[in-house]
């Protein structure tokens, strides 16, 4: 009977997978056999292509994947460097990472690839009569095979993203691993051929996989063509070389795979589609989608209207294939904007050492020591260097990362709504950290005068929404003092909201632990039933606990809001006690 049940269950699962069919385009929509699909994805980021800012090595002028690897080989040798990369690939993205993404509500992963895991650079290949004898490497394909298995088990789409193309596809070397001393993708027919053959190899390998979401052919081209526009291709009015290569790659893929979507990208980090209108690429394939990237801009209807117009004009779907690096409020507003307009999306990246990712990496002291030496132009011993990078690889295991529930809630729980949710469960007669205010958008869970970075649209410097850039990814300014998150840099008019559970209706006092190095400050505390104002005298550099007047609370769930009337405070914790 058990065997019969298992057989029937597996048959049903198999039928469901078959019924879902291939992800594909249909007019202006991305669909499968069950109807329209909104892609909700995150990019794997630093896993298979290391970027200087995520390796935290830019201050040491180590900006690219190859520069980092070369530096290690110089310090610890090729054998130890290879050992580090084996551990790095094993730790950085695992089945548990993908299982977690599925549980959190994502339905796809965009894997950022570096061609060097799959084949050799043209400089290392044998070339005869202008033709390359391509060398294929097993390691990259082994990892994408694993990822394909994990995605199939989770019924999540796997989208292949060529993040580091042969030769480098952009002047922004941090992203593309471009080496200006060598021919770029655009300068070399051999690099173009290698990219073409690599895509054929990938497409042939995965052509029958139902959970492949497609091929993102060239991530963020940024190049100056025919002496027009900026060095990064912004303002360039002739991007035919980009469209020619997309057409070539699409044609090559279709020789082995007619099932999966190909995603195309414009110049200027993916967003400049000038000359597309005059190019045959727009008619080259009936299973093609337009991508764009969105960073640091306002989340208004106007900000996506041009893309929507393009979608309607060419009758091709849109996919916003990369955004992120901002606050929770920006995330919620941006994703709601996309989904309201039937645009799928992918965030960047799954994990790093900052507060604005679903997984936060804690950088080990040994790695900071290594970076400090490199920044001074010095080296640690081989043993210390090896241990430092191995510690950094270990810190990227998901079990060693901190899950950022506030970021997940912003991305998945607040699509087209302004609901708030407790960050932690709070009760009376316990210390409650001021940093543990409710999750939600600015104006709803809290109010802070700077809650996101819009520096591109504002033509201004980059804004840091959380001045301390610690603990939470909201506008509330938080720093760490003695391993405790402290709300700091408060300004008049700002506030935080807390959900508190009580067993009975009661009159309570609130004990506030704070520090005030300035003039006398004041806060207003509201329970919804009444308001009280509490004065917080100067404390110099000492922590002080002060007691408020009586505040009425109802039985069950209460909302407590702390308003800053006056004062630049450091707020540590509060406790609600029955009077």
Would you mind describing this structure in some detail?
The chain is built from 15 helices and 29 strands. It is an alpha/beta fold. Among the domains are: 37 residues, no CATH class; 161 residues, Galactose-binding domain-like (Jelly Rolls, Sandwich), CATH 2.60.120.260. Helix 10 links the parallel strand 11 and strand 12.
Give me a quick take on this structure:
This protein is of the alpha/beta class and 579 residues long. Helices cover 32% and strands 24% of the residues.
Mean pLDDT: 95
State the share of residues found in helices, binned by percent.
25-40%
Can you count the helices? Answer: 15
CATH architecture annotation of the domain at 418-578: Sandwich
Topology, number of strands: 29
Q: Could you tell me the strand content as a percent range?
A: 15-25%
State Rg. 26 Å
- SSE class: alpha/beta
**What can be said about the biggest beta sheet?**
8 strands, parallel, barrel
Q: Output the CATH topology of the domain at 418-578.
A: Jelly Rolls
Which spans of ≥5 residues are poorly predicted at pLDDT below 50? 1-17
Shape: globular
For the largest beta sheet, what order do the strands appear in spatially?
A: 4-5-8-9-10-11-12-13
CATH homologous superfamily caption of the domain at 418-578: Galactose-binding domain-like
CATH class of the domain at 418-578: Mainly Beta
| N-to-C span | 63 Å
């Amino acid at each position: 009977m058990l065997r019969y049940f298992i057989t029937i269950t597996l048959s049903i699962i198999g039928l469901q997978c078959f019924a879902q069919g291939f992800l594909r385009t249909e007019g202006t929509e991305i669909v499968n056999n069950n109807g329209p699909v909104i892609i909700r994805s995150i990019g794997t980021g630093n896993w298979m292509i290391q970027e200087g800012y995520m390796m935290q090595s830019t201050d040491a002028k180590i900006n690219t994947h190859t520069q980092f690897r070369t530096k290690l080989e110089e310090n610890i040798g090729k054998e130890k460097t290879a050992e580090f990369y084996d551990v790095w690939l094993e730790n950085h993205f695992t089945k548990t990472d993908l299982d977690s993404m599925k549980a959190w509500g994502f339905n796809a992963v965009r894997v950022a690839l570096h061609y060097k895991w799959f084949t050799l650079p043209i400089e290392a290949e044998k070339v005869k009569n202008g033709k390359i004898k391509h060398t294929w490497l097993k390691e990259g394909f082994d990892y994408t095979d694993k990822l394909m298995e994990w995605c199939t088990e989770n019924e999540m789409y796997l989208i292949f993203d060529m993040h580091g193309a042969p030769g480098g596809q952009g002047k922004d070397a941090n992203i593309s691993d471009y080496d200006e001393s060598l021919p770029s993708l655009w300068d070399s027919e051999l690099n173009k051929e290698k990219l073409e053959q690599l895509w054929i190899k990938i497409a042939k390998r995965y052509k029958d996989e139902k959970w492949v979401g497609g091929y993102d052919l060239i991530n963020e081209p940024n190049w100056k063509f025919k002496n027009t526009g900026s060095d990064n291709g912004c303002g360039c009015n002739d991007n035919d070389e980009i469209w020619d290569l997309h057409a070539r790659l699409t044609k090559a893929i279709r020789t082995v795979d007619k099932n999966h979507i190909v995603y195309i990208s414009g110049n200027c980090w993916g967003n400049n589609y000038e000359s597309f209108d005059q190019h045959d690429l727009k008619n080259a394939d009936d299973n093609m989608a337009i991508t764009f990237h969105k960073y640091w801009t306002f989340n208004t209807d106007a900000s996506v209207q041009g893309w929507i117009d393009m979608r309607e004009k060419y009758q091709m779907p849109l996919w916003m294939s990369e955004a992120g690096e901002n606050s929770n409020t920006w995330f919620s507003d941006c994703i709601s904007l996309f989904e309201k307009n039937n645009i799928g999306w992918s965030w960047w990246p799954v994990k790093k050492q900052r507060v604005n990712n679903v997984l936060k990496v804690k950088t080990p002291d040994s790695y900071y020591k290594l970076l400090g030496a490199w920044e001074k132009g010095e080296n640690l011993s081989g043993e210390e260097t090896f241990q430092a990078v191995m510690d950094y690889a270990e810190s990227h295991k998901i079990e060693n990362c901190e899950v950022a529930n506030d970021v997940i809630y912003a991305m998945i729980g607040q699509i087209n709504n302004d609901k708030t949710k407790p960050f932690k469960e709070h009760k009376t007669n316990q210390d409650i950290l001021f940093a543990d205010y409710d999750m939600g958008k600015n104006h709803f869970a809290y109010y802070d005068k700077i809650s996101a970075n819009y520096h591109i649209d504002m033509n201004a410097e980059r804004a840091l929404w959380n001045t301390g850039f610690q603990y939470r990814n909201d506008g509330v300014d938080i720093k760490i003092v003695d391993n405790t998150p402290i709300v700091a840099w408060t300004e008049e008019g700002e506030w935080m909201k807390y959900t508190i559970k009580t067993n009975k209706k009661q009159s309570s006092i609130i004990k506030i632990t704070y520090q005030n190095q300035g003039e006398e400050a004041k806060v207003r505390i509201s329970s919804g039933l009444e308001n009280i104002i509490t004065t917080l005298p100067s404390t110099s550099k000492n922590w002080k606990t002060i007691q408020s007047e009586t505040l009425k609370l109802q039985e069950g769930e209460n909302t407590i809001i702390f308003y800053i009337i006056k004062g630049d405070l450091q707020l540590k914790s509060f406790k609600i006690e029955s009077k």
